[in-house]
Amino acid sequence: MSDDAPWLVVGLGNPGREYAGNRHNVGFMVADLLASRMGARFGRAKRAQTEVAEGRLGFGGPKVILLKPLTYMNLSGGPVVSLAQFFKVPVANVIAVHDELDVPFGQVRAKRGGGEGGHNGLRSMSKSLASKEYARVRVGVGRPPGRQEPADYVLSDFSAAERKELDFLVDRAADVVEAIVVEGVEWAQNKYHGI
């Protein structure tokens, strides 16, 4: 990983107002918070079908490109690889921020590489990047109650009880992204996995 190479932080979600509050869109929520921390605004990058914001995380930190794909989740990889190539971002400096069924609601986990766990956004990214060795910030949404289908669960809004904690969850996920950019994945794991 090159010290002067930029970072590409991909907030995964679905475009459109009807999806804005969905569990599946927590990646967009984290990207929005990171943009405000950087004092950056999202603008439309038409050729890449995405919204992009640029800035720096941390005092004098590396350049960070925030990306919210405007394709649907299962086509996220195309915009990601386009921007990674355009900004010359190595796969090691790509971070996917996404909802994770296998992490309890309210918890955030960082890791590098691994499987996609049935997540269509990650599957599309891995295929387009021809690699699974990017970092992931897994934002816990927990498992669906009863017999609810996982697909229906992630495409529904956070519950009223969850919404009371949602700002804290999004804030923690943004902290984990910042820690990865400034200090690395292992450091972020050591700091945040006990919380």
UniProtKB/TrEMBL annotation:
Q: Where does it live in the cell?
A: Cytoplasm
This entry carries the following GO cellular component terms, namely: cytoplasm
Tell me the Gene3D superfamilies matching this sequence.
Answer: Peptidyl-tRNA hydrolase
Q: Does the keyword tRNA-binding apply?
A: yes
Return the annotated site residues (Stabilizes the basic form of H active site to accept a proton): 99
Q: Which UniProt keywords apply?
A: Cytoplasm, Hydrolase, RNA-binding, tRNA-binding
Q: What is its EC number?
A: 3.1.1.29
The UniProt site entry described as Discriminates between blocked and unblocked aminoacyl-tRNA is assigned to 14
Q: Which reaction equations make up its catalytic activity?
A: an N-acyl-L-alpha-aminoacyl-tRNA + H2O = an N-acyl-L-amino acid + a tRNA + H(+)
Binding locations of tRNA: 19, 72, 74, 120
Question: What is the protein's major site of localization?
Answer: cytoplasm
Which residues participate directly in catalysis?
24
Q: Which family does it belong to?
A: Belongs to the PTH family.
What functional role does this protein have? Hydrolyzes ribosome-free peptidyl-tRNAs (with 1 or more amino acids incorporated), which drop off the ribosome during protein synthesis, or as a result of ribosome stalling. Catalyzes the release of premature peptidyl moieties from peptidyl-tRNA molecules trapped in stalled 50S ribosomal subunits, and thus maintains levels of free tRNAs and 50S ribosomes.
Its quaternary organisation is:
Monomer.
Protein name, as recorded: Peptidyl-tRNA hydrolase
Native organism is Actinoplanes xinjiangensis
Q: Which gene encodes it?
A: pth
